[in-house]
Amino acid sequence: MLASAIINQRLLEHLNTGVLLLDADLIVLYMNPAAEALLEMSGKRGVGVPFTDLCIETDESASALEQSVITGHSYTKRETIIKLHNQQHITLDYSVSPVAHPETRLPSLLIELQGRDRLTRISREEQLISKQETTRSLVRGLAHEIKNPLGGIRGAAQLLARELPTEELGEYTNIIIEEADRLRDLVDRLLGPRQIPKQEQVNIHEVLERVCQLIEVESDGVILISRDYDPSIPEFEADKGQMIQALLNICRNAMQAMLENKEQAERPMLVLRTRTIRQFTIGHHRHRLVAQIDIIDNGPGIPAALREDLFYPMVSGRAEGTGLGLSISQSIINQSQGIIEFVSDADKTTFSIYLPLEPL
After folding, report:
1. Per-residue model confidence as pLDDT tens digits over 307-320
2. 55-56 and 224-228 as β-strands: parallel, antiparallel, unpaired?
3. Phi and psi (nearest 5°) for 249?
4. Among 272, 250, 268, 226, residue whose Cα is nearest residue 324
5. Residue 31 pairs with which residues in a beta bridge?
6. ∠ Cα 349 354 356 (to 5°)
7. Which residue of 79, 95, 305, 308 is surrounded by the most CB atoms within 10 Å?
8. What does the buried/exposed string (b/e) look like for 30-68 if buried means 16 or more CB atoms within 10 Å of the residue's CB?
């Protein structure tokens, strides 16, 4: 019997589903490691306190738990937003089942918690990666169809310039050639980096420091830059030049948004933060160790109308913007098996870059 109890305990401890046992007064009697991770509370601190001190859904949720103890009826809720003890919010599926305590036989509640945030994020990342691949294929095909006629137009204009009777007429052929070159350059920028990445060992903080230097020069010192680095992040293989370009595009967008915001009362501030994450999924792949680089600004935020399509080429919130910077950044990070995500509200925008630190 003792061996069976030990086996059951070990099984609970290795479940990905959070499991809690409450008594009739909704005091936590047990929580497994998955529940500790979801609720961001250790078992030592969580056991013995009211469940509603760990997390709360609404004022009525405690009443529903009490009614479940009294009536003996189970219930399940899907995609529910829960407020944790630290004021953070998470999305959960949870089930409540009245049971008898395994030792005292007194009425108890068994609660099963299944986090939805991670699944939602993985699904969103898969959609983002799929959109990016589709966009790249579309742009490559479009670029081919545009560049061939452009070459013909430019060549014809050069031949025509040789046959003109006066030099004054050459102004018109020069316009044709210059505009053909401008369109060719635009198409090349749409395609993003075309050279084979030069793989080398890269220190992400050296990359960020280079980006900081460029932003400080471009903003003439107006932007206040705050660094919050994790020095334990190891070097990883990447193209250093392309990595600088990817991060610079994001920081430059943030800088321009803050400098152009006439209503901003606070001094424009850019926060660069690095952390490591273990056992993190990007798209279809689970990585043992990932670097997270957060680029945070206190600008006006990204307009809601642009958020769904922000990484598409030619999408920009600025009248003079080309809308290519973020698309190129996403392509560069994707080449390193990483991804860029963002969250934005009225006075804060955070771009998070996730980069695997170990090859697949």
Report:
1. 777 777 766 666 56
2. unpaired
3. -60, -40
4. 250
5. 20
6. 170
7. 95
8. bbbbbbbebbebeeeebeeeebeebbebeeebeeebeeb
